[in-house]
Amino acid sequence: MKRIHLFEVEDFNWVPNWLRRCMTLLIVVMHRILGSPEQVAKLVSKALLYSKKPEIIDLCSGSGGPMPEVIEILQNKYNVKNIKLTLSDLYPDTKMAETVNGGNNKNITYLTTPLDAAKIGAKQKGVRTMVGSLHHMKPDIAHNILKDAKESRQPICIFEISDNSFPAWLWWIAIPINTITSLFVTLAVRPMTWQQIVFTYIIPIIPLAFAWDGAVSNARTYTLSDMDELLEGLHSDDYTWEKGTIKGKSKKLYLLGLPVNK
Question: Out of 70, 189, 190, 216, which residue is the most buried by the measure of CB atoms under 10 Å away?
């Protein structure tokens, strides 16, 4: 595999939730700038055709992500009725869960109990999504996540905003670029908190962590060839896999797992 499993700051348990949440909000803005919600919605709309319910279970949601915006696009552009979104994580963000579950949109909930993306089973129905999160998983865990979706006969949609096509030495050029970018992107973050302002412009913890994680994400992203290795032993007539690239403001990768009716 070209992929290298380096560490990201937000992966450590000792990282305070406020810092992880601030970094997630930056990532949400970046997704919007890069057009990710529209692209994810198009992929999910296809996956929903293979689901018995108009439901989505977002895996590794952490402190949030672009999926609530994806739901709006599915409703307004793809005319998906009565769609429900469940956010989940192995280590749920309790504050984010309170915000989501106490909000006005009753079609979006945050699961407050831990959910292991590799051990969901067939009980949880609907399209499984992982947006910018598969690269956090080591190969054995990533393989088991895909295997669990296949064995449960549930659709799964993987989406990554890095395609890992650059030579390894170019990964690190992203650090200064990401640092500067975060200073501008922060202005579009909503809701804005005092931590976001103080630890961006006065004590630049967020820009440095964001820059490092962004560069490392490139190194950790599974290439299309890497995905072939993850899918070894998972090919059969009753479940099909589709992978490819999406071109736009940046090149992205996707992997769809779809159960075939027989």
Answer: 70
Cα separation of 254 and 173, whole Å? 24
Name, in order, each residue with C-beta under 8 angstroms of 67's C-beta and a sequence gap of 6 or more: 40, 56, 58, 61, 85, 87, 129, 131
CA–CA dist 51, 68 (Å, integer) = 19
CB atoms within 10 A of CB 134: 25
Alpha carbons 175 and 211: distance in angstroms, whole number = 5
Give dist(CA 118, CA 179) in Å, integer. Answer: 33
Question: Around Cβ 32, how many Cβ atoms within 10 Å?
Answer: 15
Q: Give the pLDDT confidence of 94-129 residue by residue, as tens digits.
A: 889 999 999 888 899 999 999 999 999 988 899 999
User: Of 17, 9, 75, 64, which is closest to residue 217 (Cα–Cα)?
Assistant: 9
Q: What is the largest CA-CA distance in the chain?
A: 60
The whole-model pTM stands at 0.94
| Mean pLDDT across the chain | 93
Contact 51, 22 (CB under 8 A): no
pLDDT digits (tens, 9 = 90+) for 50-69: 998 999 999 999 888 899 99
Query: Cα(39)–Cα(35) distance, rounded to whole angstroms?
Result: 7
- Nearest CA among 38, 6, 12 for reference residue 131: 38
The burial class, CB within 10 Å (0-12 / 13-18 / 19+), for 216 is buried
Encode pLDDT of 201-248 as tens digits.
999 999 999 999 999 998 999 999 999 999 999 999 999 999 999 988
Please state, as a whole number, how many other Cβ atoms lie within 10 Å of the Cβ of residue 2. 12
Chain position carrying tokens 């769609």: 83
Beta-carbon contacts of 21 under 8 Å, excluding residues fewer than 6 positions away, are 63, 64, 93, 95, 96
Q: 3-class SS at 70? A: helix
